[in-house]
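Fold this sequence, please.
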Amino acid sequence: MISKWLDERLELQKFKDKFLTKTFPTHPSFLFGEIALFSFITLVITGIFLGFLYEPSIGKVSLFGAMVPAAYASVVRIDLLPMGIIIRRIHHWSAMIMIASIIAHLARVYFTSAYRKPREINWLIGLGLLGITLGAAFTGYLLPYSQFSVTATSIAYYITESVPWIGDWLARLIFAGEFPAHATVPRFFFLHVMLIPVLLLSLIGLHLLILVKQKHTEPGANRNRKEAQAGRRLIGIPVWPEQNYISVSLFLFLMFVVVLMATYIPLNPIELYGPPSPEATVMRPDWYFLPIYGFLKLIPGDLSFTIAGGKISPEAIGGVFFPGFLVMLLAAIPFLDRPKEPQNYIENPLHRPFMTSLGIAGATLLFMTTLSGYIDVFHIAPSAMAIYVIVAIAAAWVISYLLLRIYSRSGKKGEHVKN
């Protein structure tokens, strides 16, 4: 009765016939995107709860007899609420999983060459989603306004200030003045809960719209199936109801994992670090910023020069040019690796020696620069670690390329013998 009433007004059956009958690939690696989407939904829900209780101000208030910043006090009070600290941890670990799943999703697209024509735009959107998600994590870092979060954010301030020619202006724009300014926390709160979520929603919507229009790439084995002989695409399972059951099960399992992590894995204890103070704090950023932090440690502190009036400092080289170069290289890949015809089937990474070995070398770079963030723990000199990084990248690239070339040639010979 109700469904008929709604169908007469909203034409739900037409919507179902047009969109819910579309097929979804059955390969499990295609679920990374869904994990990122479900993590984002969890972030929005928990973020609404936290937003009702958080006070974006560094004005002094009383907390257990001591005068502390209001932002810090509000987070301490959230942690004292029943389930308050669990919800804050769920928010934290959902952000970690969202970043990891986007990286895994982009890696799948790269290694299977699913970025090729006609999907270049969605590749760029994926990179944009990763960058904006990292921006959300960065802006959320400061909000507890503890000694740890302020120290971590100050590193980003100095990196921003080091941008040649526009560093001072850019730092004042992002940080609302010279950090830490009274308006910095409100500025970051606005970016974290309003501007960045709107950008994420817009890019997610655009990504899904293009995906529905172009369809997924599908496993190469589908080429030999009967359905494909008639030119049918995409071969898989319908969104409704089969894929819907998988998605709901995945969401519930993801929630189980996140709640389990939130229950047993603590966050940085803000009560232990306390509110901001002049004392120096030894800290390292979270894993997703460790490659930049580690690369900064490898750059000699006296490496500085001027170009056209702009100062090129170690902070600019490690914090601006290094990630900027990686982003530009990733953005250029679909336009450098161009096929003549549109590609609708994923490629076997083992049959793409150059691009796969390049990806392995890139992963080695990120791994080694992450390790570089711990050279003080390993007692390794920056110059020695720099040599280790270069040797590891070169070895990973050359060895993986040679092995893949041998495998690819042997595979072609096997096919020739069969034919």
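The first strand starts at residue 23 and ends at 24. Strands lie at 23-24, 60-63, 66-69, 237-238, 305-307, 310-312.
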